[in-house]
TrEMBL record:
SUPFAM superfamilies per the UniProt record, alphabetical: Periplasmic binding protein-like II (SSF53850)
Gene3D superfamilies, sorted: Dipeptide-binding Protein, Domain 3 (3.10.105.10), Periplasmic binding protein-like II (3.40.190.10)
Residue intervals of the Solute-binding protein family domain: 24-288
Organism (species): Kibdelosporangium banguiense
Any Pfam family hit: SBP_bac_5
Protein name: ABC-type transport system substrate-binding protein
InterPro entries from the UniProt entry: SBP_5, SBP_5_dom
Length: 415
């Protein structure tokens, strides 16, 4: 969690200076190197070590093909990946509020299948990433079905790495952001579904205090002016500098939607504007590896920004400089953009440790981050949640873990 690229809240974990187990492991004392008001967010999803220690591929691969879980209100009775079905049963050994339902069955289906299952009453609850057509189909089910949007804990970002001979120039990065038509990219990525446009670099639309901070807009004329200032000329429809074409690589995680769809739309727009673009789709862990002298990797990443309980940690993890190390052989982890502005670091540290309010830090930093074109937020992913009236539920759109936060109270009433 401290060192792997793209780790959620990695800046918070890096503040941990010592961990001690006492009383046979029943008490764990964690010491931080500096005050950290958001410390609780680091321990909200603990799992016993024995579930992870023998996982194939080790800790960093444990969630690739398995679902380690323990001590919850439900136990996994059956996991059938080929059929797309998971059977959960009430965990009689759970010490907190017991689940009302004896069994919850999760099934995979396409949009049409989900709507039909709701219409017939075969299923009582649907959670799905839907496009405009899927939302319309759900809304035809009438008053017996309630349809809501449930934000996911993820904002889809374009991350600009300052690598290669071109993107090291702030003018070039800013020109690329002006070339891009964000509205068209968002439409392609969401398909007209419930996902919400994002216009801030730290907070997500679903979070308290969110406000649009993004000044950038689709402006091809400004893009041409900036590229000309940076020494490029438009020759035969291609931007070149001393005979070398402006060339970038876009990376998106393989088989992950809507990331690849977004990457293809970005590629199409940039190519149409005279930029040579290569699209690569490695696995997510390969995509987020830091650039090295031997392997620069993609210049632009289509990557997630986490939406967590502690936005100050997101700020520090996404935009902070690497931690200092006294060991010259150790390469300290950085953010996935490889970005570091030492003049910003005192403000980032102050927000992380609580000596400056997050709102003041955002007001100070976001205009500077926008000017340097570090990242361009696109939209916060969201699912459609639809429930039949005979299913009594709690809040189905709770942040971070919707709709299952209220699963212990689910009750199916008689028709």
């Amino acid at each position: 969690m401290r060192d792997e690229p793209g780790g959620v809240d990695s800046a918070g974990y890096r503040l941990i200076s010592d961990i001690k187990a006492e009383e046979g492991g029943k008490v764990v004392t964690v010491t931080f190197a500096a005050p950290y008001p958001g410390w609780r967010s680091l321990f909200s999803a603990l799992l016993p070590a024995h579930l992870l220690k023998d996982a194939p591929g080790g800790w960093d691969q444990v969630l690739e093909t398995g679902f380690p879980a323990t001590a919850g209100p439900f136990s996994i009775k059956q996991l059938d990946i080929p059929r797309g079905e998971i059977v959960l049963e009430r965990n009689e050994r759970y010490w907190e509020q017991p689940a009302v339902a004896d069994r919850v069955i999760l099934r995979r289906a396409d949009q049409a299948g989900l709507v039909d299952a709701l219409r017939t009453g075969h299923d009582q609850l649907v959670v799905a990433r839907t496009d405009e057509a899927g939302v319309a189909m759900l809304q035809t089910l009438g008053a017996k079905v309630t349809v809501k949007a449930a934000p996911r804990p993820t904002v889809l970002n374009l991350v600009f790495r300052q690598t290669g001979p071109d993107l090291q120039d702030e003018r070039v990065r800013t020109a690329l952001t002006h070339i891009l038509d964000r509205d068209a990219i968002i439409k392609a990525g969401t398909g007209g579904g419930p996902s919400v446009r994002a216009d801030a670099l730290v907070l997500a639309p679903s979070q308290a205090g969110y406000a649009s901070t993004g000044p950038q807009a689709h402006d091809p004329a400004a893009a041409q002016q900036l590229l000309t200032q940076a020494g490029y000329a438009l020759t035969s429809g291609v931007w070149t500098q001393e005979g070398r074409p402006l060339s970038i690589t876009i990376g998106a995680p393989a088989d992950k939607e809507p990331y690849v769809i977004v990457a293809k739309e970005v590629q199409k727009q940039l190519v149409a504007a005279g930029v040579q673009v290569k699209l690569v789709t490695p696995t997510a862990d390969q995509l987020l590896r830091p650039a090295t002298a031997a392997e620069a990797g993609p210049n632009i990443l289509v990557a997630p920004r986490p939406v967590g309980d502690n936005p100050a940690a997101v700020l520090a993890s996404m935009y902070g400089c690497p931690a200092r190390s006294n060991d010259s052989s150790v390469v300290p982890p950085g953010n996935i953009a490889g970005f570091c502005d030492p003049s910003m670091q005192p403000v980032i540290d102050a927000a992380l440790t609580g000596s400056m309010s997050l709102s003041d830090a955002i007001a100070n930093l976001e205009p500077r981050l926008w000017r340097q074109s570090v990242a361009v937020p696109l939209f916060q992913l969201a699912d459609s949640v639809a429930a039949r009236s005979e299913l009594a539920t709690g809040e189905l759109t709770a942040p971070l873990n919707a709709p299952f936060a209220s699963a212990v109270t689910w009750r199916r009433n008689p028709n």
